[in-house]
């Protein structure tokens, strides 16, 4: 079987490319040094960055591409998942900024699946217009890989729930309007039951957000404390006590959209180009056997990543649930991120450490930044071990380990 885009898809591919060339500053790729699969090595703040970001986001909204796969009635374009995948592939290839991964990419699609009509009307247009941003309140000090261990509670009182507990590794909680939170609503139920989803206003009395500074010295994570935080009952999304099942859907979306497959291709092309034109100790780099083998291995793994990426989109379009495929895609791409960083460091050696771009110093310091950052995506949204467990359990039918 040969994979080909249809004529319509190919035209869309070209339209997205034209859009990116027009709406992103021509030197954007130099600003944005995000390592594919990394969370924290993004663009370096500098003159014009904020303006460029706002301009790009505005243009995306005008096109309706911020919520490209959502139904039209909720502010989307109703494009297929394959078209959404094309859009994600091209934007990541051009290192376009991630405009709103959480509210638009994860929360919105989950509300579409599980929310009541009233909840859809209340939240989806506000997310689609960029009016509200969200952070993910899943992990806790005693619940990460094993989310069934969450201990944060939500207790009914009159027209409200009262939330108590602690979340951790909460990316962007300090700059987001609402928490997309899981909390235990039935403490007597078994671990995988009795959990519900809430949308909680970040400004509610009783919420304390404390920064956790990451390996880059950046404020990305937080720990967040809930002390008798009152939430209106209508902010319980979907059915009470069904949250754990909904979480599986939400995590599927997260694993698919975090991939940014085009970013791998882009940086790999730059790496190969550099190898083709550079000499080391009087000999072309391209003639070193060790370099050639490393590049060939990465080229193969990028192809595998692409196949899984298109396959996942195709399954979503057919209404299938790509749990195993999205785990395989997440695993393949985040492990690829590590291997790519290692190879870039090996190939460039000390030259990769220099930020100024010259003929001899490629990548503007991206490789060492990526080398530090690439570990993040192998942990976030479920570690590599957890993805392998999902593949073994649900894909191969092996028993729980
Ligand atoms: C960059 C980044 C951003 C994040 N953003 C958020 C966020 O916004 N919101 C949020 O809620 N969380 C967030 N997280 C947290 C993330 O989801 C958890 O760190 C992750 O799920 C792992 O949980 P843990 O840290 O508790 O590790 P643990 O679950 O304690 O795991 C520790 C180690 O044991 C291994 N392990 C655990 N269980 C098994 C098993 N059954 N089989 C084999 N090995 C196992 C793991 O693979 C890991 O290597 C983020 C994490 C990172 C790195």
Arithmetic mean of pLDDT: 91
Q: Could you estimate the helical fraction of the residues in percent?
A: 40-55%
Question: What is the CA-atom radius of gyration, in angstroms?
Answer: 22 Å
Task: Outline the low-pLDDT stretches.
Answer: none
User: What is the top-level CATH class of the largest domain?
Assistant: Mainly Alpha
What do these coordinates show?
The protein is α+β, with helices and mostly antiparallel strands and 401 residues long. It is 46% helix and 15% strand. Strands 1-4-5-8 form a 4-stranded mixed sheet. Strands 2-3-7-6 form a 4-stranded antiparallel sheet, with no helix packed on it. A two-stranded antiparallel sheet has the order 9-10. Helix 8 packs antiparallel against helix 9 (289-317), helix 8 packs parallel to helix 10 and helix 10 (323-348) packs antiparallel against helix 12 (384-395). It binds flavin-adenine dinucleotide. Flavin-adenine dinucleotide (FAD) is lined by residues 39, 135-139, 144-145, 169-171, 376, 379-380, 382-383, 385-386, 389. Flavin-adenine dinucleotide binds at residues 39, 135-139, 144-145, 169-171, 376, 379-380, 382-383, 385-386, 389.
Keywords:
single chain, 401 residues, alpha+beta, Butyryl-Coa Dehydrogenase, subunit A, domain 1, Butyryl-CoA Dehydrogenase, subunit A, domain 2, Butyryl-CoA Dehydrogenase, subunit A, domain 3, 3 domains, four-stranded antiparallel beta sheet, 10 strands, binds flavin-adenine dinucleotide
Produce the secondary structure layout.
Blueprint: H1 7-23, H2 28-31, H3 49-63, H4 81-93, H5 103-114, H6 117-128, E1 134-137, E2 153-157, E3 160-168, E4 178-184, E5 195-201, E6 207-213, E7 219-232, E8 236-237, H7 243-257, H8 261-277, E9 279-280, E10 283-284, H9 289-317, H10 323-348, H11 366-377, H12 384-395
Parallel strand pairs: 1-4
Antiparallel strand pairs: 2-3, 3-7, 4-5, 5-8, 6-7, 9-10
Helix pairs in contact: 1-4, 4-8, 4-9, 5-6, 5-7, 7-10, 8-9, 8-10, 9-10, 10-11, 10-12
This protein binds flavin-adenine dinucleotide.
Residues 39, 135-139, 144-145, 169-171, 376, 379-380, 382-383, 385-386, 389 line the site of flavin-adenine dinucleotide (FAD).
